[in-house]
Prior knowledge:
The chain has two domains: 153 residues, no CATH class; 115 residues.
Amino acid sequence: MRIFKQILNFYINSSIHVGLSCYALVRMTQYMFHIPSDESVANFAFFGTIMGYNFVKYDALTRTHKLELRKELKLIILFSFCSFLLAGYYFFQLQRIVQVISVAFLGILLLYTLPFFPNKKNARNWAGVKIYIVALCWVGVTIILPLLNANVSVGSDFYFKCVQRFILIFVLVLVFEIIDLKNDDPHLQTVPQQIGVKHTKILGYILLIVFCGLEFLNSHINGNFQSVPLQLVLIFVVAIVVALFLAFANENRSKYYTSFWVESIPIFWWLFLISLQ
Length: 277
């Protein structure tokens, strides 16, 4: 049992799980826009997410020596370096425009992590900004990059899916912010810190209603009600599952509540979809 827990902790702490979530959303985008399987962009998203999340989580702590280089952390650093090399390999398989935009998102990541200006905090510590940066980056990596790499023309469906994906990630981050409320620096001005847990949950429910409503509206505008019944059903299932996780979120939940179960939602969404194909 102890070995299983160590493996699970390494799986979560090394960001493999969040990388799989990003990979699953890229695959969902490819399904939604009828893009043939594109391993390069999906694998780039997977390894790039692992590298990026580990950099954000461990960079400041290791630079300031606040985190002892235990055996697990050394393995995570080694694994992150391997992920960096693999992300670089797939990066050079992407189209030039996708590479340029990927570098732009890397710039956002660096701004989020490193204090570029003297006596200024990084973007991660800017009051109330974190949740928007995270949601924006996920939209970019899981929707914009796959579509550009596949040369898919941009239409109304693209904008609807971007807003939906932003809402989904935003609400998932709300669950994280509720769980982390007692540990977060008050200066971060997270949503629960600003409006309280109750109103944060209400905001999340409203956004999930919009999330579902956008799918109906998009289907109506594009006249494809008959071709997306499965997609509509899955959208509602995902919204209900996220709403339940949001409803039961509180400061006393274990780290696995968010770091494993909440981050599993995109993975199960994708696996459920492919199991029905």
